[in-house]
Amino acid sequence: MKVWILMGPPGAGKGTQGDLLQERLHVRKLSTGDILRKHIQLKTPLGLQVQSLMAEGHYVSDEIVMQLVAEELKEIQGQDVLLDGVPRTVVQADALQAMGVSIAKVIYLAVDAAALVHRLTGRRLCPSCKRIYHVDTNPPRQMGYCDHCVAVELIQREDDQEVRIRTRLSLYEQETSPVLDYYRAKGMCQDVMAEGEVEDIYSRVAAIFL
Ligand code: AP5
Fold first, then answer.
1. Catalytic (active site) residue 14
2. Is position 80 within any domain?
3. Residue 96's closest CA among 32, 14, 23?
4. Within a domain: residue 14?
5. Which of 179, 135, 182 is nearest to 9 (CA)?
6. What is the largest CA-CA distance in the chain?
7. Residue 88 annotated as catalytic
8. How many angstroms separate the alpha carbon of residue 120 from the centre of ligand 1?
9. Cβ of 54 below 6 Å from ligand 1
10. Tens of pLDDT along 144-167?
11. Which residue among 56, 109, 134 has the greatest number of ligand 1 atoms within 8 angstroms of its CB, and so is best to mutate?
12. Domain coverage including residue 106
């Protein structure tokens, strides 16, 4: 099993690029944010436990997240995996190493901080198929509705309110930037300029896989 890590601040395009990589290169995307949101949607005990924390833009505990990752990795053994949103703390990076996960490359999506708030405040999601839209840069054909699911209204994530976005960005600087430094020091990280057309960014990211 080869494991790739997609890193970048909130709004860098990890979900957008991760979905394309999964669809076209058949690498299995493992997004801790998506897994946690599914628990919230299904109102599982874990979902109820983390709901308000995530809505406010705070991190879920390392123990909970790494337990989920260990379970998922066990289930998808044998496939190449793309981690999106994890590790997010140095503790999580150490835990991944202790699990014996062999990391092929860490891909860092670099985006100017000024662009991130605009990307996140304008993001809309399909609650059914999880496709990601943006009201300006990637609008659906009929405003407010998914292009692929009949009559399904798009939603805005609770943590995509501007004040919560600011919390997430500062948490990223404090907790997740050191993870990038950790991988850089090991010579495992490759930066990708992640502004401009989604397809151009995809070509740059996919080139690292091939
Ligand atoms: P998570 O879901 O991982 O959120 P995030 O890291 O904040 O990242 P986002 O999903 O907001 O952004 P993205 O980079 O995927 O951007 P996207 O492609 O959607 O985590 C959510 C929460 O879960 C965390 O806050 C935490 O509470 C918890 N959590 C998850 N993992 C955890 C962990 N390991 N430890 C602890 N807690 C954890 O794009 C954003 C927008 O930009 C979209 O509208 C898109 O259309 C648009 N866009 C994309 N590319 C472009 C482009 N090139 N040009 C213009 N617009 C673009």
1. yes
2. yes
3. 32
4. yes
5. 179
6. 49
7. yes
8. 8
9. yes
10. 999 999 899 999 999 999 999 999
11. 134
12. 3-112+163-209
